[in-house]
Each structure stands twice: as structure tokens, then as C-alpha cells.
Amino acid sequence: MDRSDRFTGRAAVYHRYRQRYPIATVLDRLKTWCGLQPDWTIADIGAGTGMLSEVFLSNGNPVLAIEPNHEMRSTCRQLSDRFPLLQVRHGTAEDTGLAANSVAVVAAGRAFHWFDIPRALLEFQRILQPNGWLVLVSHGRAKDDSPQSLAFEDLLIEHGTDYACIRAGYRVHENLHQVFTADRHSEQIPGRQILDWDSLLGQALSFSVVPQPHHPGYPAFEQRLRDFFHTYAEDGLLTVPTSCWIDAGRISAP
Fold it and tell me: Which region among 4-8, 91-95, 167-171, 221-225 has the lowest average model confidence (pLDDT)?
């Protein structure tokens, strides 16, 4: 499967059920670490439905949202009604279509693990202005050794379409010392989500590794997810520990 097709059929549930980034927290860190200014142009690579773009747009930044999936791009364009400084374009991390030295920040959210990282970094160096910044932000469930976390991992390994093959890629934030060459700043911020059954199912369906309802493996997946929910939920609500990872730095020497 082409990486750009992994989220076909998932844009609506992604936009509705994925946890948003903590806008004030992310902006606070980037202003402190990088001196982020509202007139800086941001390239949001693998922008999806625009959740990370919204962080920078809320700061008044012009944002070029680069996304290869048609459905995700269409959802992202809906932000233009509130944020006229948003431009949404087709492109990939390895071939953004942007001009050389045209952006102050290259940002990526929950997409960085899908990139061909060596090729993407070359492209980022090309489009960044001198002394520009790479910013990586991710937000999702915390993975630890708790019974609940391990049970969810087992569920995805057993019933996901290819999670067992690609799960290591999701731990990209543990190896960012290989990406940043200077001025790296990093913070992991704990949090939590409270999900009812519909929210848990919707969020799970936004994962590219989960079978969609037309897939033959979907009934078994949904039953296992229901069992998981009834095991760990209290009074119809499931508490899910989360982490927000924020990293910023330079990818070439000044």
C-alpha cells in the first residue's frame, strides 16, 4: 500500500476523534526555545486534517500545509474558513514542491514516522531558510508496562492489519538525536484522555493499522476492542494516559 493511501477512508474519524495538540503549551515552548514569531512562514509536512497547522495558525503564522492524501487535504482546507493564512497543497515529505529557502520552520506532527527520513531531511534542508528550525510534535497514548497499555498493544498486534511489522517506527521520538544536529530542545508532557465507547472506537478507526468496517477482520477486532473497554472502563468511561512530545532543533550546522 502507498503510504499516502493508508488514511483513505479515515479522514472523518481522524478529524473527529483524534486528540488535539495543546495549543498554548506548544506555542509557549516554541516561543521560548526558537523565538517563534507570528510572521514566520511554517511548512506543516504530512499535515493530515490540519491539527498541527491549527497550532501555528492560532499564533498568526502563515502555514503551508503539505499532505499527499486527497481526503485529508480536503478536511484540512476547512480550516481556511477561520484561518485565511492557510494554504493546503499536495506534496510529500520527500518532495514538498516548495521553493528553496522559503520557510522559517518545517513542522511535522503524527506523520514523521511515515517519512523516508534521510530523503525528507534533505528536502527540509532545501526549503528551510538559513538557521531555520525543524519542529516535531506528537500526541497520543502513553506506552508503558501497565496492564491496560500492554492489553491494547496486544490487541493491535493480534487484530491490526500490519501493526506488528511497523510498530517500531512509532518510537521515532526515542531516536531524534540522529535527526537534530544543533540547538535541540525536547519535552514530554503527560496527560490523559477520557473516552466513552463511541470515542474509543472512533479513535481506533483513525489508526491506519486498524481494519476498517468493510475489512474481513473487522468483526473480530471490534469484539476484542469491546472486551478491552469493558475490562478497563469504569462507569462507562475509559481513562487513557497520554503523552505530548515536543522537539525542536536545527538539522544542519549554522
Answer: 167-171
The Cα–Cα gap between 28 and 35 comes to 10
- Tens of pLDDT, residue by residue over 211-235, are 999 999 999 999 999 999 999 999 9
**Confidence band, pLDDT 50/70/90 cuts, at residue 169:** low
CA-to-CA distance for 191 and 251, rounded, in angstroms? 29
| Architecture of the domain whose range is 3-140+167-192+242-250 | 3-Layer(aba) Sandwich (3.40)
> Is the alpha carbon torsion for 212, 75, 96, 46 positive or negative?
negative
Q: Helices (DSSP H) in the chain: which residue ranges?
A: 11-17, 23-34, 51-57, 70-77, 117-127, 147-159, 163-166, 197-205, 218-232
What residues does each domain of the chain span?
3-140+167-192+242-250
Q: Mention every residue, 6+ apart, whose C-beta is less than 8 A from residue 168.
A: none
Q: Is the pTM of this model over 0.90?
A: yes
